[in-house]
Amino acid sequence: MTETAKILIEMTLEYLKRMRLNVSIQPENAPVSPDVDLGLRQYLGIPGKPQILSLMKPVPERGSGDAGSAGNPLIISDDRFECRYMILRLPQDPESRPPRVLIAGPYLTERVSLIHIRQILERSVLPDSLFTWFAQYYSTLPVQSGEDILEPYLLALGHALYGNLDLKLYYRDASSEPEQMRQDVNAVSDAEYSDKARELLQLRYDKEEEMMNAIAAGNTAAALAVGDGPYFKSMETRAPSRLRDQKNWLIILNTLCRKGAQRSGVHPVYLDDLSRRMAVKIEAAPSLPELERLPREMLRKYCFLVQSFDTRSFTPTVRKAVRYIDVHYADPGFSLQKLADALGLNKCYLATVFRKETGSTVTARINETRISRACLRLDTSDLTIGEIATSVGLPNVNYFTRLFRKQKNVTPSQYRKMIQG
Known about the structure:
This protein has helices at 3-18, 34-37, 40-44, 114-123, 131-140, 150-162, 178-190, 195-216, 220-227, 242-262, 268-284, 288-292, 294-309, 316-328, 336-343, 347-358, 362-380, 385-391, 397-408, 412-420; strands at residues 23-27, 74-78, 84-89, 100-107, 170-172.
């Protein structure tokens, strides 16, 4: 291998790591170890120690490339768990036997829903008891479209290394392999766990459920009590560094918190916003001390969200009205009349049933929603008071401040200092 090729490969390793991808160089006949798949096959106890070659063997393709080109050096491979790998066969080095590959992954091309996870388990003939583990596993994987950045980069790298502009990417679709799947599930069913290991695993899942129920009830103290316990500290180590491993654990916690808050009927627009903000904080944290502060902050914020937007006790009509307010509160001209028109209801009827069920007028609810959203932004963003006021539909800062003080007994600035302190 030339010095130029070595430099290109080192640069590629650094680039892919900065893309938050798990990446390594392995012999192509090496087993798919935890260093390659982050522990998936080891956890499942899949027999026969499948080799990296199993991710490269020809199967019916989904895109360009030669379906029979087993020797193609540029491979985009989907395994049967819908995890994707980017594989580059390295130019042959006379001193290196067997041939080596650069393998990056696993990653997802889109976030996997819980419904989709169940479908994967059913198709793979895997027991439903693995559902929580798979949900956690998928939540730790990075999401990369591939077509925009990774695949063009792989193609350009292949051209540079091999000097062959006719090279194409070989897309390897997931293989169903039903007989192998039956063998795999038998191995999982027969896997031996000590009584202590089973007890700890069950306890952790029970505590996850307890924590989600506490969040769904908006019970901050109960959620913090579970979150401060040792139940989640035994999660499998999958990442090459402690910092990355802690970030992966916090991504799982963020998912659990979001699902807990969803049980209370909080509108997805709020869940998505808070989940996204917490995910950004997790990835941006430069050190373990920074990460250690996030679990309690996360639990408090999701409980606060539930306390502000729980709709389970309302009838469908009022729930629909509340959710419409949740989405359109930032409109400065939003009013009872606009709400009634949007829902196709008589204004007087809507005002009566809304007040009867919520104990509040529509106008008061709109303003409560605006102030609650303002509180969330004061806590999670660096926006100025004026910018926050405008973003919640109250562009007059003086009026916003008066309304805020009336509801919270402090000014927006005092509230921000109190929360951040």
